[in-house]
Design goal:
single chain, 294 residues, mainly alpha, two-stranded antiparallel sheet, 11 helices
């Protein structure tokens, strides 16, 4: 165990930055769960598509200094468009079915998307280089923190605040909350609930794509990268409170930090620490840390 102050600070920053990506992806899953009541297993595959699309755009615009930023804007929109097609063509016909059927259905969609990704991009490992402005490191508490990690630390809270403002202050956000509670009554009032659900699903897919685009410079992009992510995202949503955005943020912080600091305490069993934290939280608060919307 090498638990020095510098090592602790370095791992804490790494854990916090990873937690921000986990939160962004989990917030989309949480929003879909809260409004549509759909446990979208394909959410991880959409995250993976976001990473691959971001990679392709970076390759196409390799000589353009703004290539990374264009990829960060376009990749989530591409994933949102894929989500819109899935929701309108397939998912919209199944909202009244049991959750088990929805789980099986979205699991099948995830498998299909995985095969399509493999067909389009192959099985090779890919990577994305962050832009020059986000290269290098910033000294924080005598520890050099990569600029890109610092960028993630700033972006995560902004997404959380943006989602909170959208859900609580905008008309479509308020309608989404009302539809989650009583969709029949909202329909009686003249609101097209079908398109409200479509909008909610698209927003969730957009956040999955954004998470994929953001993770691209920090890890290897490959098929199968969605598998661990979707498990982590569901655990984060569960311990935070189903459908609760702030709960997803807290859950992501717990997951990311315990995983990162576990590397210092017991490197051979790093993967155990976040799952142990999940077990402890659920034993103490079976319905999650914050109020569930279910």
């Amino acid at each position: 165990m090498n638990l020095t102050l510098d090592a602790f600070t370095s791992q804490l920053m790494i854990g916090l930055s990873r937690a921000m990506i986990l939160f962004i992806v989990s917030s989309g899953l949480s929003f879909v769960l809260g409004v549509l009541r759909v446990p979208n297993i394909a959410h991880g595959s959409l995250y993976m598509i976001g990473a691959f699309v971001a990679f392709s755009i970076n390759v196409w615009l390799a000589k353009n200094p703004a290539g990374f930023w264009i990829a960060l804007l376009v990749a989530p929109l591409v994933v949102a468009l894929v989500g819109l097609v899935l929701e309108r063509v397939l998912l919209s016909r199944l909202y009244q079915r049991e959750h088990l059927m929805l789980i099986l259905f979205t699991f099948a969609i995830g498998l299909i998307l995985n095969d399509l990704v493999k067909f389009a991009w192959g099985s090779e490992y890919r990577s994305v280089v962050p832009p020059e402005i986000l290269s290098g490191a910033i000294p924080i508490f005598n520890v050099d923190v990569p600029r890109y990690n610092f960028f993630l630390l700033l972006l995560g809270p902004l997404v959380a605040i943006g989602m909170w403002l959208f859900v609580t202050k905008t008309k479509i956000g308020k309608i989404s909350r009302a539809a989650a509670v009583d969709r029949e009554m909202v329909g009686v009032l003249g609101v097209n609930v079908s398109w409200v659900f479509a909008a909610a699903f698209v927003i969730g897919c957009y956040l999955a794509g954004l998470g994929g685009a953001l993770v691209a410079p920090t890890t290897t992009i490959t098929t199968g990268m969605d598998r661990t992510l979707i498990i982590e995202a569901f655990l984060i949503v569960t311990i935070g409170g189903l459908g609760n955005i702030w709960g997803a943020l807290i859950g992501a912080l717990i997951f990311g930090v315990t995983q990162s600091l576990g590397l210092l305490v017991w490197p051979q069993f790093t993967v155990v620490f976040p799952y142990a934290a999940v077990v402890i939280v659920l034993l103490l608060r079976p319905r999650g840390l914050l109020r569930s919307v279910w």
